[in-house]
Amino acid sequence: MPHALTVPGDKSITHRVLMVAALSPGRSKIGGALTALDARSTARVLRQLGAGISPLREGAVVTVKGVSRFSAPRIPLDCGNSGTAARLLLGLLAGHPFGATVTGDRSLRRRPMRRVTDPLAAMGALIAGADSGDRLPLTIQGGNLRPLRYAMPVASAQVKSALLLAGLSGRVPVAVREGVGGTSRDHTERLLAAFGFALPIREGWIDFDPSSGCLEPFSTEIPGDPSSAAFLLAAAMLGRSPRRLRISGVALNPTRTGFLAVIRRMGAVVETEQRGTVLGEPIGDLVLTPGDLQATDIPASEVPGVIDEIPVLAALAARCHGTTTFHQVGELRVKESDRLGLLATNLRGLGVEAVAEGDTLRVTGTRGPLKGLIRTADDHRLAMAFGVLGESPGVDLVVDNPACAGVSFPGFWKALASLEGR
Ligand code: S3P
């Protein structure tokens, strides 16, 4: 029998479901929502905009009392560490006729925002702030939007979603096309489609007509987060006693499960067992049988589908036979930290051959002893990726801020310990 675990609710889906419920007049009920800090940031700012949201507590169903229009917030909307909260919120605010200030923690205030503020300004939103609208805090005055047809320069679900949500809240049609490099996660499209909105895709353009559907209160159950599952699957591959592992109730949306193809190439056998669909999202179990770790190549076309899994894939690569190359991963420089730079320096600090050159990351695996202190810059995915590597026999490392895993995966360290029978 494989070891059995579950993971907390999907972060991307939780943000979106909370936002859409907040704009669905009436009472919605959300089970399985992520209760981590990022989800709490979204719930907090939505409350400031007039939605009633019960506390996000482990095991509790979240009740959302939605409103048809948001009301002007009295103080700045603090999105904490969450880029998804900030960027999607800017989209929602663009459709509302009042001024609001959006801000975040130190990490979020250094992340680029022009990728959303430029197209939102093209729709008619007035946005002012540091670095000509590229950095938080930003003040946005929305309302009275124009339709938008926009080819995105980068494949980003946050940008795509911000624009679709601007169309929704501003009641104007929006057409978006993803940039070169593939398709980003499509949770917003699936969620809107579940409410009857038409979002046909023609020659790469997603055409959203906000008059084609209507938001109403709903009850749902958020599936487990495949990005959180990735850490535990990797730990089962690397750990002292590599073991079979089943993780049940996980979102199996193909725009999120790209890492399964990568870990299969690295030597794991992974089966997926779909059990149903919720809000247009396929859900099921992942069953992993570890194998010998082999290096692989991650081409640019695969990157949007594994963008959040690259830290843990790099941790696996550090124990693979051969050199793993991640192509076109420059986006990692503007995540919660400079993940590209920190992955390479931390791996080298342990004694692994790792190079971040331009947009490429190369990691040469070793079975030798590794030792060192990991500097995470408070980035949750770096803390967890190195936590996983720390389970590999012969690795002796200390993560400087293990608590930051709570940004996306409360209970991570406990789940990791349970895998090793601790
Ligand atoms: C997310 C999109 C991704 C991802 C982030 C969550 C989302 O960011 O890295 O963790 O929920 O839309 P980009 O869209 O900027 O690639």
SSE topology sketch:
Layout: E1 3-5, H1 11-22, E2 26-31, H2 37-48, E3 52-53, E4 62-66, E5 77-78, H3 83-94, E6 99-103, H4 106-109, H5 114-123, E7 126-129, H6 130-133, E8 138-141, E9 148-151, H7 157-170, E10 174-177, H8 187-194, E11 201-202, E12 205-208, E13 219-221, H9 226-238, E14 245-251, H10 258-265, E15 269-278, E16 281-289, E17 297-298, H11 310-317, E18 323-326, H12 339-350, E19 353-357, E20 360-364, E21 370-374, H13 380-389, E22 395-399, H14 412-419
Bound molecules: shikimate-3-phosphate.
The site of shikimate-3-phosphate has 10 residues, from α7.
Task: Describe the structure in your own words.
The chain is an alpha/beta fold and about 425 residues long. The protein has 14 helices and 22 strands. The chain has helices at about 10-20, 35-50, 85-95, 105-110, 115-125, 130-135, 155-170, 185-195, 225-240, 260-265, 310-315, 340-350, 380-390, 410-420, and strands at about 5, 25-30, 50-55, 60-65, 75-80, 100-105, 125-130, 140, 150, 175, 200, 205-210, 220, 245-250, 270-280, 280-290, 295-300, 325, 355, 360-365, 370-375, 395-400. A 4-stranded mixed β-sheet has the order 1-14-16-15. Helix 3 (about 85-95) links the parallel strand 5 (about 75-80) and strand 6. Helix 3 packs parallel to helix 5 (about 115-125), helix 3 (about 85-95) packs parallel to helix 7 (about 155-170) and helix 9 (about 225-240) packs parallel to helix 14 (about 410-420). It is globular and about 60 Å long. It starts with a strand and ends with a helix. The relative contact order is 0.12. The mean pLDDT is about 95. Shikimate-3-phosphate binds near residues 84, 157, 184, 185 and 308. Shikimate-3-phosphate binds near residues 84 and 161.
